[in-house]
């Protein structure tokens, strides 16, 4: 079992003992998504794969929050935000905007990118460096602004 999955399982047990229903629900949702992926692919996930599942859940929550906000459903926004705060506990420390910009500038300089045609190459380089530590949508927008 990966360390991250073990940590999540241990946190579930703590939430059960503390009778923290909202945390327990969110943690069970994470473990369910991990288990589903393991069953679908017939493998045991390592930390990197578990992190990918968690990242997907974070993205889904952010999308849901945006859509519920647009629809004026503040009750559902609160539920999604509560889940998101618990799910984010398992994400690596996020980089600051300055750190992300420094990585983008360095990647542009190192690769010699000078136009939007190099966008894919830059995203490939930066995905390996920043995956899980930064919102790749934000990285993409930053690259576009630097290259245009």
Strand percent estimate: under 5%
What structural class should be given to the helix and strand makeup?
mainly alpha
Main β sheet profile: none
Low-confidence stretches: none
Question: End-to-end distance, in Å?
Answer: 45 Å
Order of helices and strands: HHHHHHH
Helical fraction: over 70%
Could you say what the CATH architecture of the largest domain is?
Answer: Orthogonal Bundle
Going by CATH, what is the homologous superfamily of the largest domain? Uncharacterised protein YqeY/AIM41, N-terminal domain
Provide the domain count: 2
Number of helices: 7
Q: What does this protein look like?
A:
This protein has 2 domains: 3-90, Uncharacterised protein YqeY/AIM41, N-terminal domain (Hypothetical Protein Yqey, Chain: A, domain1, Orthogonal Bundle); 97-147, Arc Repressor Mutant, subunit A (Orthogonal Bundle). It has 7 helices and no strands. It is globular. The model has no long low-confidence stretch (mean pLDDT 91). Helix 1 packs antiparallel against helix 2, helix 2 crosses helix 4 (74-87) and helix 5 crosses helix 7 (136-147). It is mostly helical.
């Amino acid at each position: 079992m990966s360390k991250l999955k073990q940590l999540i399982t241990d946190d579930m047990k703590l939430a059960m003992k503390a009778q923290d229903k909202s945390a327990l629900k969110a943690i069970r949702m994470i473990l369910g998504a991990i288990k589903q992926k393991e069953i679908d692919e017939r493998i045991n996930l390592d930390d990197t794969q578990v992190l990918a599942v968690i990242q997907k859940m974070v993205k889904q929550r952010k999308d849901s929050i945006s859509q519920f906000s647009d629809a004026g459903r503040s009750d559902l926004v609160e539920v999604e935000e509560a889940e998101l705060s618990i799910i984010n506990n398992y994400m690596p420390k996020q980089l600051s905007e300055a750190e992300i910009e420094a990585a983008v500038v360095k990647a542009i300089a190192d690769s010699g990118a000078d136009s939007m045609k190099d966008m894919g190459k830059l995203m490939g380089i930066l995905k390996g460096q920043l995956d899980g530590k930064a919102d790749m949508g934000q990285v993409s927008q930053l690259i576009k602004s630097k290259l245009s």
